[in-house]
Design brief:
Layout (H helix, E strand, L loop, with lengths): L29 H6 L4 H8 L13 H13 L3 E5 L5 H12 L5 E4 L6 H5 E3 L1 H15 L13 E3 L1 H5 L10 E5 L8 H11 L1 E3 L1 H4 L5 E5 L5 E5 L2 E3 L5 E6 L7 H4 L3 E5 L4 H12 L2 H5 L1 H8 L9 H13 L5 H11 L8
Parallel strand pairs: 1-10, 1-11, 2-5, 5-10
Antiparallel strand pairs: 3-4, 6-9, 7-8
Length: about 325
């Protein structure tokens, strides 16, 4: 008899079956990243909770060489490739191996501007607080709030804070090609000079102002200028949806990630799902590796299919096959 693996059954009758829901996939376990100390939880979710079972994720020589070129030359790494080839994961792998802390992440959307990455000044919030204090005190407030309480450095601004060599941050600028056409050119000066100014602090009477940072901490900004001491390791990713200006390309180390080979894929599956997944999902893995050139299916789609079908063992074989096909849909064409 086939057991019912479904949580939602579509019967229209309330039940408490949600309590039977198994633990989430390791890469979707957000509780781990919030409870583990330091960057361990974030690394586990991105790189695989069982990565200690794998000696190496077997990066290709050109990947290692490009990362080292970016480190030696203090230049951003521009990583291109199909969705799901590990472009974002590369930033986390470097941070984890070199002990550079939690990765700062700037996800680019169509409305993203350079200002979003550098800092945000909450002028309206400051004005409201001053007016509230004035109303409560019946006149001028006894002490005006510091302007630094209303300035928050963005991920790029936080990455450019002055720290010694060996303590620089890793910044992931994810999907740069999704942004406004002006953004790559707007980044040029900041990436070249490693500094920027905050006009609101340049006008402030205090020479040193403590502001909030993107990672939840605080930092002191002197004379309204943020200038890096050690250039951060910056990874710019792109799905290749558009070309970038030559001025940006010459300031970056280029790296194109190809789909994983069998050895790399086996290491990834083991790191995320354990060694048993290689045998249990051998058929799906083989189909994934045999896909046609130009057929885009992301690595995490395979992980999803392996995880889900392994937990739907009670389903009929035809049902499991249908689930796998749904999860492994091609990304290079509309459905």
């Amino acid at each position: 008899m086939v057991s019912d693996w479904r949580i939602y059954r579509g019967a229209g009758r309330p039940h408490d079956g949600l309590g039977e829901l198994p633990a989430p996939p390791p890469w979707r376990d957000f509780s781990r990243s919030r409870t583990d100390a330091g960057t361990a939880g974030d690394a586990a979710r991105r790189l695989g909770v069982q990565r200690q079972l794998v000696e190496s994720l077997h990066p290709r020589p050109q990947e290692v060489e490009a990362v080292n070129a970016a480190l030696y030359l203090r230049r951003p790494l521009l990583v291109t490739g199909d969705p799901g080839t590990g472009k974002s994961t590369l930033a986390h792998a470097v941070a984890y191996e070199l002990g550079l802390g939690k990765v700062l992440r700037w996800p680019i959307v169509s409305r993203s501007a350079l200002q979003d990455g550098l800092y945000h000044y909450d002028a309206i919030g400051r004005l409201q607080d001053v007016q509230l204090d004035r109303a409560q005190s019946g006149g001028e407030p006894a002490e005006r709030p510091s302007i630094g309480d209303y300035i928050r450095l963005g991920p790029l601004g936080t990455a450019l804070l002055p720290v010694p060599e060996g303590e620089q941050r890793v910044l992931l600028v994810d999907e740069l090609d999704k942004g406004d056409t002006d953004l790559p050119n707007d980044l040029l000066n900041v990436l070249e000079e490693g500094e920027f100014t905050i006009p609101e602090l340049e006008r402030a009477p205090e020479e040193r102002v403590r502001v909030r940072t993107d990672d939840g901490g605080t930092a002191v900004v002197e004379r309204g200028r943020v200038r890096c001491q050690a250039f951060p390791f910056i990874v710019l990713t792109s799905n290749g949806e558009r070309t970038f200006p030559a001025a940006l390309l010459r300031r970056c180390i280029p790296l194109e990630l190809a789909p994983p080979d069998p050895q790399q894929l086996a290491a990834m599956v083991t790191a995320h799902l354990g060694p048993d997944a290689l045998a249990d999902g051998a058929e799906l893995i083989e189909e994934f590796l045999r896909r046609e050139p130009g057929e885009v299916i992301a690595n995490d789609q395979l992980f999803n299919a392996l995880f889900f079908t392994a937990r739907a063992q009670g389903a009929e074989p035809a049902t499991r096959r249908r689930i796998a096909e749904m999860l492994l849909h091609r990304l290079d064409r509309s459905r």
